[in-house]
Amino acid sequence: MKGIKQMTKKYVYGFSEGNKDQKDLLGGKGANLAEMTNLGLPVPPGFTITTEACRAYLGQGETPETLDVEVTAAIRMVETEMGKKLGNPADPLLMSVRSGAKFSMPGMMETVLNIGLNDDSVHGLAKQSGNERFAWDSYRRLIQMFGKTVMDIDGDLFADALHGLQKRKGYAGDLDMTTQDLQQLVVEYKEIVKTATGVDFPQEPRKQLDMAVEAVFRSWNTDRARLYRRREHIPNSLGTAVNVQTMVFGNMGEGSGTGVCFTRDPSTGHSGVYGDYLENAQGEDVVSGIRNTLSLADLEKIDKKSYDELRAIMDKLEVHYRDMCDIEFTIQRGKLWMLQTRVGKRTASAAFRIADQLVAERLITRDEAVTRVTGDQLTSLLFPQFDRKAEKKLITKGMPASPGAAVGEIVLNNSQAVERTQAGASVILVRSETNPDDLQGMVVASGVLTARGGKTSHAAVVARGMGRCCVVGVDDLVVDEEAGTVYVKSQDTTYHAGDTIAIDGSTGEVFEGKVPVTDSPVKTYIAKGLEAGLEAAGDDDTRELVEAVDHIMTRADDKRELVVRANADTPEDARRAREFGAQGIGLCRTEHMFLGDRRKLIEQVILAKDKSEQEEAFKALVPLQEGDFVGIFDAMDGMTVTVRLIDPPLHEFLPNLTDLSVQLAVKEAKGEKVTAEETELLQKVRQMHEQNPMLGLRGVRLGLKLPGLIKLQVRAIANAAAKLKKQGRDPRPEIMVPLIGSVREMQIVRDMALEIISEVSAETGVELDIPIGNMIELPRAAVTADHIAPESDFFSFGTNDLTQTTWGFSRDDVESSFFDEYFDYSVFGTSPFESIDTHGVGAMVQMGTERGRKANPNIHVGVCGEHGGDPASIHFFAEIGLDYVSCSPFRVPVARLEAGRAAISNESELALERGAERNTTA
Ligand code: PEP
Ligand code: MG
Fold this sequence. Notes:
By secondary structure, the protein is α/β, with parallel strands linked by helices. β23 (500-504) and β24 (509-512) form a beta hairpin. It is elongated and about 105 Å long.
C-alpha cells in the first residue's frame, strides 16, 4: 500500500515492555515475568520471543529474518543492565532459555540453562563465583541439557557417563563429585557430542542461544506435548513463546537455594505459607521431585531476610492478581530472585473455596467468584469418594497431591497402564517419581502414586491439572519396575503389579484391596440441598467446601438466562435430573421403548401383510407407551417434557442381517426346516438393509412412510397427559419431530398429530394443549428455518446429527479412523462432537435461530445434542441467545454453573474466541 510504511512485526519484548494480559503473544510465563518486572519485583532481566515467532518458525522451518537483529538488541539491553557480557571469558553473562506457552504445559517442553558457558568462560565463572566446582558443574549441566534437547542426543549417554564415573569412584551421588571429576565429565560429555553428531559442542555463546531458542520452538511438537494438548484441549496452532533470562543460581552453595510456593494451599485453599524449598539446588531439581524438599517454614529458620521478603512479595502478588498465585524463586547467596509467577493451578475443591474466601475477604465480587470456577471442576467434585464407614486396611501414607478416590490394580509403567486399561481394568500408576514421559500412563490411570516428590512435583502438578487423583512422596515405598514389585518398608510387605490398591488423594492414604466408594458431599448437596450436604460433609474443611459451592451455584442460578433441561428417557433418569436442578426434559428419546418384549410388535408392523395386521400391532403398543409416558410426566410434574418421536431406522429393531442369514443357513445345512415366516423375515431384513442408515429411512421419514407409528406415539402421549390431568396432576408434554428437512414434512406430521390430540381430547373430555416442534439436525432445516418456523412451536438443535450432516461424516466411523490426523494438522483442536464447531455447526445454529425467530417470534429455541452439556459450547449458546440447553442428568449442575458464568462474564467475544481457538476451521 502506497504511502503506508510497511510495519515490521516485533518478535522480541523486553520484560519491561509487556504485561500479564499478553499471554497470547508472550505466553503465560513471559506475560507474568513482564508484570512482575513492572511491579518492581526482583526479576532477573531478560526478554521474551513471541509465540508469533514460533509459529513463523514452525511454518517456514526457519526463524523470521528480523528476529536475529531484535535478539541482538535485547541481549545488549540485558548486558547493559547486568554490567556483564555474554561470552566474556573473564565474567560471563549466563542465560536460561525456557519455553512458555499461553496455557501452562508443565514439563512438556524444553529448557536449557547456563547458556554462555564454554571452555574459556568456565574459568571466568569459577573466578567470579569463587567456586570452581560450581563452575564446572554448571558447564557439564549445560553440555548435558544442550546435547539432549538441542542436539537430539540420547540423554542416557550422558546419564551413563555420569553414573559410570560415580561408580568407578564409589560415590553415593552428585554431591560427592570433585572439581576434577566434573572436569573429566566435561571432556567425556564433549566426546559424546562429537561422536553422536559429528560436530563439536558449540563454543560460541550466541550460537548456543540461537540453537536453544530453535530447539524450544521445535519442542512444541514433541509427542508428549501434542498428547498433553489434545487432553487439555489446547490448540496445536498456538505455538510457544521463549523466555531468555539472566541466570541466577540456587546451587552456589551455602545461602543459596530454590523453591516453589503458593500464596494459599492449592489443595484446600487455606491461606498461609505453603511451598517447597531445596537448599543448594537448581530449579529443575524441585519440580522433578528427585530430591525431597524442605518446607517454607524451614526457610524462615535458614534465611529470615529472604523469607520475609518472599512473604511480602507473596502478599503483594495475591492482592495484585486478586487470586492465588504460584511462584518460583531462587536465592543466590542471600539475594532473592523471582523466576516465575502465575495464577496457580488448584484442585477443584480449592477453586471453590478460594473463590468464596476471596469474596469474604472482599478481594473479588460474588459475580467474579462464579467466573473463577469451572464446570469441569464442579464435575470432579461430584465424583464418588471412599466410604468413610467402610473397613479399610491402611498400608501407608504420603502427601495428598490431587484429590479423589481411586481404586485399581498396580501398574508400574506406561505400557502396562495402557495395556491393562485397554483390557478394561482400572489401574493405579505407581512410580518412584514421574517425568513428562509418563503422561500417557497418567492419562489412562485412575490414580497416580509416587514414592518421591513434593506437592509441586511433576506428578502432582500434572495430576491436578487433569483432575486425576494423586498421592506423592510416599518415602515408605520402594518401587522396582523391573521386578514388578512395590515394597512397603513399614509393613515389610511386597505388592505386585496386578494387585489391587486404593488411594485417597485428599488424605494421602494408601489402602490394600478394593475400598467401597460413596457419594461425595457436594453431590449430596446438589441432589438434596444444603442441609443434607453439610451433614454429609463430616469435617470443617468439607463443610466449608459445600458452603462455597452453594454460594457460587446460587449466584450462577440467579444470573443465568439459559434454562437448563435434561435428556432423560426413564422416570428414574427424570427424577435424578430434577434433583440435579433440571427445569424440564429437553429430549426424551423413545426408541428404547420399542425394544425387549415389544420388539416382536415392531416386527409385526414391518412384516404385516395388510393394514389391519399393522393396526393390531399399533393398538397393542399404545397402552404400553402410555405407561412409559405416565411415569415420566409424573416424575416431571409441572415441567416440560419434550418427547421425540421415534428416530432410528426401523431395521434396528429387526434381527441382524448376517446373524439371521447364518442362522437359517445352518438350519438348512442340518436338514432342519426353515419356515415360511423365517424366509420372509430374512427377505424383509435384506430389503430394509441400508448402506448409510444414518442418512436413510429414519426420523420424520418413518412418519411419512408408516404414519401409524407416530400416530400411536402421539396417542400414547395425549392419553398419558389426559390421564394425569384427570388425577389433578400437571403434565406438560411437547411433541418433537426428528430429522426435519422441509416444511412440508413438518406440516404433514403436525396435522396428523393435531388430529390425534383433538380425538383424544374429545374421547377423554380433557382439554389438551400440546406444543409440537421439531429438531434441526440437517443443514437444510437450518437454511429453511424461516419456512419451518411458522409450522413449529419450538426448535431443538440436534447438534450431534447436525455436526455429522454439516461436516458430512459419520461419528461412528470417523472418530477412530482419521481424527488423529485432523488433530495433528489442527483442522480442529477439540472433536466437534465434544465442543461445538462455532464457525460451521455453530453458525448453522445461529442462522436457524435467527431465521426461525424472524418468521415466528414466539418460537422457543434450544439445543439437545451432547453439546448442551459442554462448557465451551454452553458459552456459545448463551452468546447467540438460545432459550435453553438440554444435557444428560449428570451434567445438569455443570450446565447451570456454566450458563451462569456465561451470563456474568458477558463473554461474547471470549466465548467466540475460545470457540475459534478450539475449533479452528474457519
Ligand atoms: C442429535 O442429533 O443431536 C440428537 C440429540 O439426536 P440423537 O443423538 O438421538 O441422534
Ligand atoms: Mg439426532
